[in-house]
Amino acid sequence: MATFSCPVNSFFFRCCYGSSSNGNHGDYRVNINVNGNASAGPFKHHALVNEISLKNTSLASIQFLGNGHISEEKIRQRIPTKKQFVDPNRQGLIVERGVGYRQKVVIRSYEVGVDKTASLETLLNLFQETALNHVWMSGLLSNGFGATHGMMKNNLIWVVSRMHVQVDHYPIWGEVIELDTWVGASGKNGMRRDWTIRSQATGITYARATSTWVMMNEQTRRLSKMPDEVRGEISPWFIEKQAIKEAVPEKIVKLDDKAKYVNSDLKPKRSDLDMNHHVNNVKYVNWMLETIPDRFLECNQLSSIILEYRRECGSSDLVQSLCQPDEDEILFTNGMVQQNLLKNNVLGMVGGNGRPLDMNTVTYGYTHLLRTKGETRNEEMVRGRTRWKPKI
Amino acid sequence: MATFSCPVNSFFFRCCYGSSSNGNHGDYRVNINVNGNASAGPFKHHALVNEISLKNTSLASIQFLGNGHISEEKIRQRIPTKKQFVDPNRQGLIVERGVGYRQKVVIRSYEVGVDKTASLETLLNLFQETALNHVWMSGLLSNGFGATHGMMKNNLIWVVSRMHVQVDHYPIWGEVIELDTWVGASGKNGMRRDWTIRSQATGITYARATSTWVMMNEQTRRLSKMPDEVRGEISPWFIEKQAIKEAVPEKIVKLDDKAKYVNSDLKPKRSDLDMNHHVNNVKYVNWMLETIPDRFLECNQLSSIILEYRRECGSSDLVQSLCQPDEDEILFTNGMVQQNLLKNNVLGMVGGNGRPLDMNTVTYGYTHLLRTKGETRNEEMVRGRTRWKPKI
Fold first, then answer.
1. Residue of A275, A9, A288 lying closest to A136 (CA atoms)
2. Residues 6+ apart with CB under 8 A from A289
3. Which residue from A99, B103, B227, B316 has the fewest beta carbons nearer than 10 Å?
4. Residue B139 and residue A212: Cα distance in Å, rounded?
5. C-alpha span between B66 and A178 (Å, rounded)
6. Nearest partner of B108 among A90, A320, A193, judged by Cα
7. Distance (Å, whole) CA B107 – CA B118
8. pLDDT of residue B320
9. How far apart are the first and last CA of chain A?
10. What protein family is recorded (chains A, B) (predicted)?
11. Mean pLDDT of residues grouped by 10 in chain A (392 residues)?
């Protein structure tokens, strides 16, 4: 179960920071300036309203203050207060009989790594972005990070408890992809959010992801039931479809000091913080992946990752990343598997179970743990499990 | 002068890596797979071509191989071979009488920092992206990082020698901005590339940038004259307009061991590398800014940065970031200037020159140096100068 903070739908990217050892957690609300002060910002509001009126036929999404003024932030953000079906700026539209969201995205030059394919970090960022844009389109968005109006009223935030991503192919620089995202029920009080990534040119689905969310009271830090008011807001958006069907979710063992690879003294930097003053969760995943040896990363690509969130880490916490390889690590390093597969010499290689390696199914696993290094004891933050396949 | 590698127009983001102490520099070409091997990738090419033919009326941008097949990468990237005037996927269009480029961008949730505004890193990334998309639209793009066909033929790459960015306002999360970029002549053998960032909602220009580029032979690592063939390709795109008018460019002093702040033992990580196997230049800027004390960054925002590039760093180099504050650093730290400005108590504060501080013009400067730490001597990589203004 998640015991750390992660606001709604914005998924698994803002997580720790703001907590402290005495349990006095930080403020997770995004301050939307409803009483914008004209003198504080660079804009003259009267002039702005006129300018926008000229430029846009619909001002439905802009809220006016009691004094007839409009806050600078609202003019610049224009969060809709009613359901939208199309957003030409975001290249997004509502699909799936009015409840799913689809967005077109071009993979940018700085979003790819050395092999010219989008990094896992890029995919995770795009999941966060489309989830937020889905809530944006719904007209339910009450603050910058995805809480609904009913949640704000009840002081509730979303926390992610689990995330599972499967990647068959990575999009390349310049490729146009379509991301679909939707939500569904998860038990009585939870929500599932799923995604798919598809290539526009080929129609092939490259990646699938699913995540589970529960609600937490922002002040008490306790998990909460879903209030009827909130259920009323979000349940009309629930659909049954699942991006990844998991009969029995894989159990992730808890690593200890005997783990083969350990990175210690990891510390969040200022630039790791997002607009909720949390360490962005992509940072977590990077901490996990950076523990795997470079020579393995050079010849293998991640095909799946499962993350189980346990607690948030404080801004001043020192973090340890532990990593334990499955058997046969040497086979997947230094390109040995690749060379053998290319030579069609597959039958000549056997895995740890004595069976021959098969080019189409051969994958390799690592188990991960991020924990805080306390003075008296260590505390679990995230357990992870990654699977990899050879780059051919 | 630049003596490190930076490919064309892609501007100042891929710079070091690939060089070594014996002068044997890495390969800077992006391998575009012209002889795509159907068996290597996940796609069936015949089926794909049919699928694309059905989906798209124009196949002008896709090149067929001698055997009638089409490379997988080309299908997925679709780099145009002729000038395009509009790209609906990138939300880009050709402006300025056919030679400038404009692109609409929405600031994404993961591109903003703790104060909900886009980071400098985000702006620099968007400069790179729009520069590349400008070349993309021109039909001149011969490889993934911006070299023209004539440059590829002559084994030339672009290297950036200078960059100057001015930021009046930072865009906020969800804000729609328009980036304009264009190129011009710089001396006999150089090129200037400029940018502006404008808010779509308000029409206000938020940021301006200019950069200077020269050509380098990829093998010899020597600067090169611009061949007539290349001048013929790019000079029709030159215009005179300048985003920033600099009568006399500011001289940046070279720091030494006496600098007040020093971060040592900085080392590029695998995830810092881009598709040219270089450390992405945003990393350079981050190394500079992370040397400034947190308490200063909390109450001030960057209003300008000038970067002078001297040499690339190798993948195994250890880097030192030096930083020297101007006088009066204490005034700009801990919110003292802000508090006084807010109280309209401006006349009560004087700067180091004995003159009162003025709310509209008060800025503060740091000088920066990134250098490699060699065994026998240190070598300059980048000199920098940043100016800051109080966050109000």
1. A9
2. A120, A297, A302, A386
3. B316
4. 45
5. 31
6. A90
7. 7
8. 95
9. 38
10. Belongs to the acyl-ACP thioesterase family.
11. 32 29 29 30 35 32 47 86 96 96 96 89 95 94 81 88 95 96 96 97 96 88 92 96 90 95 87 72 89 89 94 80 85 61 48 54 88 85 94 77
Q: Identify each DSSP E strand in A65-171 by its residue range.
A: 86-87, 92-95, 100-106, 156-167
Q: Which of B48, B269, B76, B71 is nearest to A118 (CA)?
A: B76
For the segment A205-237, what is each residue's pLDDT rounded down to a tens digit?
999 999 999 988 888 878 899 999 999 999 999
Query: Does the beta carbon of B254 lie under 8 angstroms from any beta carbon of chain A?
Result: no
Selected residues 328-387 of chain A with any CB under 8 Å from a CB in chain B:
none
Type of residue found at B44: K
Domains delineated in chain A: 1-29+80-249 (3.10.129.10), 251-392 (3.10.129.10)
Tell me which residues of A are annotated as active site. Answer: 276, 278, 313
What percent of the residues of chain A are helix, what percent strand, and what percent coil, each to the nearest 5?
20, 30, 45
Kindly report, residue by residue over A85-129, the tens digit of the pLDDT.
Answer: 999 999 999 999 999 999 999 999 999 988 889 999 999 999 999
Q: Is B350 helix (H, G, I), strand (E, B) or coil?
A: strand
Please provide the DSSP assignment of B300-349 as one string.
Answer: EEEEEEEEEE-----TT--EEEEEEE-TTGGGGSTTHHHHHHHTT-GGG-
> For chain B, what is the largest distance between any 2 Cα atoms, rounded to a whole number of angstroms?
79
Nearest CA in chain A to B33: A116
Radius of gyration of chain A (CA): 23
Helix (H, G, I), strand (E, B) or coil at B114: coil
Residue A4: helix, strand or coil by DSSP?
coil
- Tell me what ipTM this predicted complex has: 0.80
**Which residues of B200-253 form beta strands (DSSP E)?**
205-217, 223-224
Chain B residues with CB inside 8 Å of A13's CB? 109-110
CA distances from A325 to A223, A284, A292, B269 (A): 34, 19, 9, 21
Q: Which two tokens stand for residue B40?
A: 């290597």
Nearest-5° Cα angle at B322, B317 to B326: 165
